[in-house]
Amino acid sequence: MDDATVRRRLEGMLQELDRSISVLTGDGTDLRDGSAADGGAHLSDSDRTRAMLDVAARQRAAVLAALKRLEDGRYGRCIDCGGTVPEGRLEARPEAARCVQCQARAERRRR
Ligand SMILES: [Zn+2]
């Protein structure tokens, strides 16, 4: 993938995430002015909503970081070992910051 394609995909992901985040946070006037038809559903689902927000926020940070790397000319390099992140992995996950091995290690570390 060339830089322009990567940027377009990342920016598309960012837009989608922003939209989901604003839906999840109820970032609309409809909730605040009390006219929301599904206001109760938001409350009973609050744990699930929080979990989804958490995932979306983390994903958003990863996409932003990838855009930054693209700008710095470091895109496609593993942030841990500096090796090349395989093209196929970037196609599937354009925001991937690590090669497969380092990602597995990082996830083990987090648990
Ligand atoms: Zn690596």
Question: How are the elements arranged and paired?
Answer:
Elements: H1 3-24, H2 29-32, H3 39-44, H4 46-72, H5 87-92, H6 100-110
Helix pairs in contact: 1-4
Bound molecules: zinc ion (ZN).
> What is the arithmetic mean of pLDDT?
87
CATH architecture: Up-down Bundle
Percent strand: under 5%
Overall helicity = 55-70%
Indicate the CATH topology: Four Helix Bundle (Hemerythrin (Met), subunit A)
Spell out the CATH superfamily. Answer: DksA, coiled-coil domain
Low-confidence stretches: 29-36
Shape: flat
- The CATH first-level class comes to Mainly Alpha
Provide the gyration radius in Å. 17 Å
Summarize the biggest pleated sheet: none
Structural class: mainly alpha
State the domain count.
Answer: 1
Each distinct ligand: zinc ion
Helix count, DSSP H or I runs of 4 or more residues: 6
Sequence of secondary-structure elements:
HHHHHH
Q: What is the count of β-strands?
A: 0
